[in-house]
Amino acid sequence: MSIEVRHLVKSFGNFTALRDVSLTVPAGQLLALLGPSGSGKTTLLRVIAGLETPDSGTVLFDGDDATRRSARDRRVGFVFQHYALFRHMTVFENVAFGLRVRPRRERPSEAEIRRRVHELLELVQLEYLGDRYPSQLSGGQRQRVALARALAVEPRVLLLDEPFGALDARVRQELRRWLRRLHEQIQVTSIFVTHDQEEALELADRVVVMNEGRIEQDGTPETVVEHPATPFVMTFIGTVNVFHGRVQNGKAHLGPLAIDYPEHPSDEARQAVGYARPHELELSRFDVGEGLWATVRHVRPAGALVRIELEDPDGGPIHVELGRDRYEQLRIANGERVYVRPSNLRLFAAG
Amino acid sequence: MTVAARPLPATRSREQRRLTEPPIVRWTLIAVAIGFLTLFLAIPLVAVFVEAFANGFGAYVSAIVEPDALAALRLTLLTAAIAVPANLLFGLCAGWAIARFQFRGKQLLISLIDLPFAVSPVISGLIFVLIAGRQGLIGPWLSEHGIRIVFDVPGVVLASVFVSLPFIAREVIPIMEAGGADEEEAARLLGAGGLQTFFRVTLPNIKWGVFYGVILCTARVIGEFGAVSVVSGRIRGLTNTLPLHVEILYNEYRFQAAFAVASILTCLALVTLIVKTVAERHLR
Question: Rounded distance, CA B84 to CA B175, Å?
Fold first, then answer.
């Protein structure tokens, strides 16, 4: 089922969580809402689920207005950040809950409920844990029970709030791959919220980056990484080096760096910020004309790459990633002076 | 409000033992605590039963089966049977409202719930007399319509409801706040209605807290003296509760009978204490 939200606005007291958010999610897509805490991503998820009522705007499921429909009637599967499993019920009863609370006419028989629950527990590979209570499970197991419980009502949409946030790194990796496979298997439209860029980029078909209640960028993981639309996305996703300066007469001046910037031909000077990823910086031992120098502070080999931390003349850090070959050519050591030149620099001039 | 302390882990390595106070301090503190308890709790408790049986078992039984004593017991139980469910309903509603909704005047509501703790019970009783008594605010209107509140059973019940009002709400609010609304939201999203959510999800999570509150509330209602003594008028066989009956007997120098009736209250208190301990264990 497709989901569409139009012009959503939601505030809590003085805090505005959503400022005019519009988004369309086609059926079967796996979408990540990525952003720092307070960016409104969880609120957006809760509005779609019907747990919050927007101040204005509409939520459409398959083109039908669902804004006023209660959470109960939306047939949305929701996985809470801390799973919200029913503490006093066994795993089996947790998964069976959605079937047991149906009105008598629609309620499946006890045998049918058993069959369905076992099927779901098998799907999440927990069929042997049906008699346990949530407190007896590990984090990863709880997370899968929460997922099975959400799927029991055959939801038309699956919403996950920080699904891996409370798990340790190794389990997170495993579950991520597993969730990806599960999504391919069941093909239900899914939205998950995360503040972890790696998670969003690895898992999702499409990434929506949010900040301060607005959508900053909406695109494939590749677009978001390779072509950040705003300075926020640039700094939020991945490590980035920031160079402050100004633009004037079609040129950008960032410290000693001078770069062509035809987008701003006027002679009126404007503040500008340049961003370069660690792998987009080149190092040399000699000044090749642009003259940004820095001191080597720390060298960390990381497989095929070498991560180098530099300190610019003002004491600010510069992160560089070099291929091992290039590093061995350069043979630089801590305390030495090197010259830095960006091979690629994204410039954002102040509006 | 009492909060059961979490038991300390039982591992007591040598280092830990060395960290505690020297034996003399330890034993002095323990002796003071036990001495104090003996003096102020154990001795009076034993005294109640000793005095109650001072004239033999027959006298004990006859003091209890005396019509006025039985009437007092009946009224006490009736009062509890009304006041506790009323406060249970109120406590659950207030607890739900405070833990789950944001609304104007929430802080005021929380403070108001504590009011009966802050006001002296005698004053609480007096309030009812001032409102519903013959010279009271709505007294004339009530007597015109033939409704008797003060110096009658309704007054006793109302005063009891008032003084025991905070107990259940006070227990329910923190448990519901700590539990959060996640499970209820999950239940709603899975298609459960309001009542289904309450009985299948909310209540199982708060049941021991509710139970604990009910026990405390019952104990308070049964033992309440001050507020009830002001509104009841102490009409023997009609508006006397057990604590009032004990006082009347005592004032008439019928010490053995007074203690016999008091022993019923003491037994109720002991049962309450045992049930409370069990509830506390499940609660934490």
Answer: 20
